[in-house]
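If you are new to this repository, start here. Below is one unmodified record pulled from the training split, so you can see the exact layout before writing a loader.
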Amino acid sequence: MMLLDLDLNELQDELKKMGEPPFRAAQIRKWLSAGAYFGQMTNLPVTLREKLQASFFEGYATEKKVLRASDGTKKYLFSLADENTVESVFMANNYGNSVCLSTQVGCRMGCVFCASCKNGLVRNLSAGEILSQYIAMNQNEGQGRNIANIVLMGMGEPLDNYDNVIKFLKMVHDADTFGVSYRNISISTCGLVPEILRLSDSGIPVTLSISLHAPFDDKRRQILPVANKWGVKEVIAAAKTYFEKTKRRFIIEYALIEGFNDTKEDAEELKNLLRGTSCHINLIPLNDIEDCNLHAPSKKQIYTFLALLEKLGLSATVRRSLGAEILGACGQLRSAEIGKT
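And here is the target side for that same chain:
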């Protein structure tokens, strides 16, 4: 059994089965948050360490490859216990460093411009496997303090792995281990309406990012298969419910595609959809993906579209592009490694 998968209560239950006092659970969680192995947990009795060694493995992700960009971004390829691989990204920012974590091995959403979908979904990650990515990068990049900003926008659709993601959020938020504020955590979804509504009622006020990418259903269906199940208005209605219940402004992620979703009509329809809504539009110049014929508009076209949105009274910015020279988009590095093997 993987020890990182256990929250504090579950760990206490396992210790009781071993005849050990439950207070040891908090000590073990502290060691795990520091990336320690059983032999390094020096405030535990040797007999307990031996019991742990016999029944569990820690569950840390193993660093397989790291690519470094000139802007300070680092792309990690991690190997899991079953030798599947996932990607994570460390991003250096003036307002505080951030990490982008994967929630699945691959993805089944089928978004046409996303490299994570190229090889389909292999499996969900457990809560501990998501946490293991954070622990590894925190050890390497934390510089003596916990990295405070987390984005669940790597490989996979987080809300397609809802229960494990919620468990991870509670574990990383725990004040006795990492203490990451929910307000510093973002979850990106392509629009799984029932799960957005579940999240609204969860009492976990993270920042919700909606990967909209087109304001018209016919366009959105061409690039996001999930749009065949839930229309744009249904997705926005769910996001509005999230805002009403959490009082947290949501983000519209909008990957700009040349000649496809960057017209005046698109801007005006975004205004119609979002009128009176507390949200912000994050314009993302499309990353070029192998075997995908979609491309980003020119810089001039991007800022022309931004000006259109601002003139219409919408809050919008262009996202700073990080790590482009190191296969920065999610799924690219793993796809390259799969191609080699």
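Two things worth knowing about this chain: Residues 3-55 form a domain with the DNA polymerase; domain 1 fold (CATH 1.10.150.530). The longest strand covers residues 62-68.
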